[in-house]
Design brief:
The protein is mainly beta. Helices cover 8% and strands 41% of the residues. Strands 1, 6, 8, 10, 13, 15, 18, 20, 22 and 23 form a 10-stranded mixed β-sheet that branches. Strands 2, 3, 4, 5, 7, 9, 11, 12 and 14 form a 9-stranded antiparallel β-sheet that branches.
């Protein structure tokens, strides 16, 4: 119901713009139109409205803003973007026509400070066309507006792409003030002095399909307000339904129904041709991917395709169809899946009692009709399922044709089941991993790769026994293949968890940071004990380790001692490489005892080194000995002087 109402609204908007949807009336190659806005609701810092461009098929946008009050939708009677006939023409008006009398949106910052910008987001019902429409940011002088967007997939649009949208700056009031565009941060900024002027504007034409469009409005000075306009181009989709009946039959083409379906699958409009078979959908948004479908009256059959895809990106489009009267006697039916869904593209073969068989394929509704059959007994109709289906129930029907049409010759097909699962490793999903499905009884294997989330799927698998295997990526262990049996139902949950082995390592050095080669390091943990020997650089390394806790023990080399000889590390399913498990050792130096006796008269050390003198072995008695000898001599002289009779002789 919502889509129907939108279609009616779009038609009404085009009619208001002078675009009529009268069947059979040729339309102008290109028209333009300005947006219509829904009623404002909400209050300050929480306003909502809608924006709808008039081109049929352009999606409506829900508008949400945290602008402060007042938010307004002026009529455009006094402020507008001039076209070529206005006194102040603008470049956007030259392409999309004058916006005189066309409403626009007035917005403000969240609050009147530079730190409180407002954010306004347009969220489109479906993806927009990738061209043929524009938006204008007006009265940007004492403020700045930054543009951001998300594409049809919801991914952010890059600054370089937004810069491609920029078409230039202008002043709709005819003044000299112009804003400045910054491609690097997608920001339109007013004049350098942040002066509150009038009419400074810029216009943009998106070049990709969008799901959202956002404007962040920042105050630089004063009490600013900015304006937003939207406009689009539109082209026509027309066609003719022709009656090609033979043998004097006729088909009332005016009773034919023609439907326009948008690129996102929504029905946009339904019309009937005039008596001459001409029809028109009027003016539609410029984009690819429209589908035009034709449904003939019950007494008529379609000759050729029942639907066509058209593109209005660069020109008007047309889709012509042919119908004819059904000739007696007709055989008809429908082909559906077991859940009742139509199966288009199934081949139906009618074999008469005599003469060649005739084939036809089912249409988008799963229907088929083979007419102009003579009366007779023993007709057979059979079905050949399209790829991905198998017959569920009877594959053929046999009947006689007399004077009435043969109806209700239906068939049911079962969609072939799918085999699916996920591949994980290292504690998370693995994308891009090759998974192979091999028939157990021989036959060509089929491979696929995992997608986002590590998921994989084999669609349309015939019944039978299979083996599923995974080719592990580099750094992972393989998982054991698994056997599955496929019957009529999907086989899901075929998951694989790949081991990602971890590793550990380190270095043994002495206190001078010199490598200690040949040291023994023992690693105990899941899988047993591993004995390693440090290389010439003192390094050791052990990989291919399962998740778990590991104890690393250093056997201290002879002549060394170490403060730490044991380390413990944990490796998880993520398969970490636990490097840096280092050990530091120091040399043992022998000490000398104070009571050691020299072993050499030459003064060498008691250890026999021969390079160090014995400490003070005689130096302490040389001076006292000399002094004693001197005193002895002096004493002897004194005694001689004191002998009797010595004075008499002199």
């Amino acid at each position: 119901m919502r889509r129907y109402v939108r279609g009616v609204i779009a038609v009404a908007l085009m009619a208001a713009a002078g675009v009529l949807l009268t069947p059979g009336t040729a339309q102008a190659a290109t028209t333009t139109g300005w947006a219509r806005w829904g009623a404002l609701s909400g209050s300050s810092n929480n306003f909502e409205t809608t924006m709808q461009l008039p081109g049929l098929g352009f999606p409506e946008a829900a508008v949400a803003t945290d602008s402060r009050s007042p938010v307004q939708i002026p009529s455009g009677a006094s402020t507008f973007l001039g076209g070529t006939t206005d006194s102040v023409p603008t470049p956007v008006g030259a392409k999309y026509g004058s916006s005189r009398g066309q409403p626009y949106l007035n917005l403000r910052p969240e609050a009147d400070t530079a730190a409180t910008p407002s954010t306004t987001t347009y969220t489109f019902d479906t993806a927009t066309p990738s061209s043929g429409w524009a938006f204008v940011l007006g009265d940007v002088d004492a403020d700045a507006v930054q543009i951001s967007a998300k594409d049809a997939s919801g991914a952010p649009v890059g600054a370089a792409t937004i810069d491609d949208w920029f078409r230039g700056v202008f002043n709709y009031a005819g003044a000299s003030d112009l804003p400045t565009w910054s491609a690097g941060d997608s920001t339109l900024t007013g004049n350098a002095g942040a002066a509150d002027t009038n009419g400074a504007s810029a216009w943009f034409e998106p070049t990709v399909s969008l799901s959202t469009l956002t404007f962040v409005f920042t105050r630089r000075a004063g009490f600013p307000v900015y304006q937003t306009w939207f406009a689009d181009l539109a082209r026509s989709i027309t066609g003719t339904v022709s009656d090609v009946s033979t043998a004097g039959g006729t088909c009332p083409v005016a009773d034919t129904t023609v439907e326009l379906v948008g690129p996102s699958g929504q029905t946009l409009a339904t019309v009937h041709p005039d008596a001459s078979g001409n029809y028109s959908f009027g003016q539609v948004a410029t984009q690819a991917g429209y589908t035009v479908r034709m449904q003939p009256p019950t007494q008529c059959a379609v000759v050729g395709p029942e639907e066509q895809t058209v593109d209005t990106t660069s020109a008007d489009a047309s889709a012509d169809f042919q119908v004819r009267q059904i000739l007696p006697q007709a055989v008809s039916g429908r082909v559906t899946s077991v859940d009742g869904s139509p199966v288009p593209g199934a081949t139906v073969t009618l074999t008469p009692p005599s003469g060649p068989a005739r084939t036809i394929t089912t249409d988008e509704n799963g229907d088929y009709l083979i007419d102009n059959n003579a009366s007779g007994s023993g007709y057979t109709v059979s079905v050949t399922p399209p790829a991905g289906y198998t017959v569920s129930g009877p594959a053929s029907h046999t009947f006689d044709i007399a004077t009435d049409p043969i109806t209700g010759q239906d068939f049911t097909l079962a969609q072939l089941p799918a085999v699916s699962g996920t591949v994980t490793g290292g504690g998370g999903p693995l994308d891009g991993v090759t998974v192979t499905l091999t028939p157990a009884g021989g036959g060509a294997p089929v491979s696929t790769v995992t997608h986002d989330g590590g998921s994989y799927e084999f669609a349309d698998v015939q019944a039978g026994d299979y083996q599923i295997s995974v080719t592990p990526p580099s750094g992972y262990h393989s998982a054991a293949p698994r056997d599955v049996t496929v019957s009529s139902a999907d086989v899901d949950g075929q998951d694989f968890a790949l081991d990602r082995p971890g590793a550990l390592g380190g270095q043994v050095t002495d206190t001078g940071k010199a490598a200690v080669a040949g040291a023994t390091v023992t690693v105990d943990g899941p899988g047993g004990t591993h004995t390693l020997t440090t290389d010439a650089d003192g390094n050791y390394f052990l990989d291919d380790l399962a998740p778990g806790s590991y104890t690393i023990t250093l056997t201290v080399p002879s002549g060394y001692r170490a403060a730490t000889t044991t380390r413990t590390v944990t490796i998880t399913a993520a398969g970490e490489i636990r490097g840096g498990q280092d050990f530091r050792v120091s040399k043992i130096v022998a000490s000398t005892s104070p009571s050691s006796t020299p072993t050499s008269s030459a003064g060498t050390s008691p250890n026999g080194g021969g390079s160090e003198p014995i400490a003070n072995t005689g130096a302490g008695i040389k001076v006292p000995l000399a002094s004693g000898l001197a005193l002895l001599v002096l004493g002897a002289l004194a005694l001689l002087a004191a002998r009797p009779g010595s004075h008499r002789r002199r």
